[in-house]
Design brief:
Elements: H1 13-26, H2 30-54, H3 61-78, H4 85-94, H5 96-109, H6 113-130, H7 143-178, E1 185-186, H8 189-200, E2 204-205, H9 222-233, E3 237-245, E4 248-256, H10 263-269, H11 273-315, H12 320-333, H13 344-350
Helix pairs in contact: 1-7, 2-5, 2-7, 3-6, 3-12, 4-7, 4-12, 5-6, 7-11
Length: 352
């Protein structure tokens, strides 16, 4: 895999910028433009999905007003023609495919010919930028600006892969913890059953009521149903410790916040409920999630550091393409129609 491929493996922003800068010196900008085309193709699938799922229900008056305002703002934006290569590159590789896909999907839902014409003008405007030829290899005197622009486009569109890994890692860690104990909180029958469903999705649960109810059908776990009833009905905070027996998970202890350091429990079991929780957190969980937690923290820091570096770099130059990007993102975010998804990281790093 080339060091410019970021679709599958993560690339830190600073490394990405260094590679792009080197490509400029070698006259190999086409590598990055090809990468952007590939990324945009993947995003287009998500954009089409977004529009098709929402269909935006333009027949509703409030949504129709939002849409009319959106196309008015986009038409106003498109009246300003840009000729500098970097701004054309931004629009060509950063917006044309997505905006045209969005407008084409919208157009299918429109009934007013006036609205259709407005949308057609927007499509034509982006098509014009899309068909423009830009020779970035000849912009040698603006190497830093070219590097920043391409890094911004590739990095912000590819960061989703990293955040998905972060989400998956957090969910995996949370699931492992959930199989050992619940949080100490006020529970309802619904929230507690939801927790049981979550851990039952991975392991078979025995000696544990799959559903808590006032009329329990689980005689073997009646004591836990009675105790849960008491805590839930009185609005008490309580916590459950689970025990593993091969592939089974079942309730080991259940205590309220007031009983956390109960002397009676210590007399019966030789240790407090809190001591049991501490043993899980300090002895059992580290062996199961220690490395996962470390990887998650490193991943999170890497993402944040990269975003911060890119944000700071974008503040330095007073480039036209940055101002154009801010104006277009303002339009995209100044609507209640849900079209912001593909642009969330751009807005985050480029600011207002």
């Amino acid at each position: 895999m080339s060091n410019l491929e970021v679709k599958k493996d993560w690339m830190d922003y600073t490394n990405l910028a260094a590679n792009i800068h080197q490509s400029i010196k070698l006259g190999e900008i086409s590598n990055q433009l090809s990468q952007l085309t590939s990324i945009n193709t993947a995003i287009l699938g998500n954009m089409n999905n977004l529009v098709n799922i929402e269909v935006y229900k333009l027949e509703k008056e409030e949504t129709e007003k939002e849409f009319k305002q959106l196309i008015f703002n986009l038409n106003k934006f498109m009246k300003n023609k840009h000729e500098d290569p970097l701004t054309i590159t931004l629009l060509k590789y950063g917006h044309c495919d997505m905006m045209n896909s969005l407008m084409n999907n919208f157009q299918k839902e429109l009934k007013s010919f006036e609205d259709k014409e407005y949308v057609e003008k927007i499509i034509d405007g982006f098509d014009e930028y899309s068909s423009s030829d830009v020779d970035l290899n000849n912009l040698s005197e603006e190497e830093d600006d070219v590097t920043l622009l391409l890094s911004y486009l590739i990095f912000t569109e590819s960061i989703t892969a990293k955040t998905e890994k972060l989400t998956d890692s957090k969910e995996e860690i949370d699931l492992i913890k959930s199989q050992h104990y619940t949080l100490m909180q006020t529970w309802t029958y619904g929230s507690l059953n939801k927790h049981f469903d979550k851990i039952a999705a991975v392991h078979h649960i025995s000696r544990l009521p799959l559903r808590f109810s006032r009329k329990s059908e689980y005689r073997l776990t009646e004591v836990w149903n009675m105790r849960a009833d008491q805590y839930i009905n009185k609005g008490k905070e309580f916590q459950i410790i689970f025990k593993r027996d091969e592939d089974d998970i079942y309730i080991d202890f259940m205590r309220s916040k007031e009983e956390y350091n109960s002397k009676a429990i210590m007399w019966l079991f030789g240790e407090s409920f809190k001591t049991k929780i501490d043993r899980i957190e300090n002895e059992i969980l580290p062996s199961l999630i220690g490395k996962k937690e470390t990887n998650k923290q490193e991943l999170s820091k890497e993402v944040q550091d990269s975003l911060n570096t890119l944000t700071n770099d974008l503040k330095k130059p007073n480039a036209n393409w940055i101002n154009v990007e801010k104006n277009l993102l303002d339009i995209i975010y100044d609507t209640n129609i849900a079209i912001q998804g593909p642009y969330q990281y751009r807005k985050q790093v480029i600011g207002d």
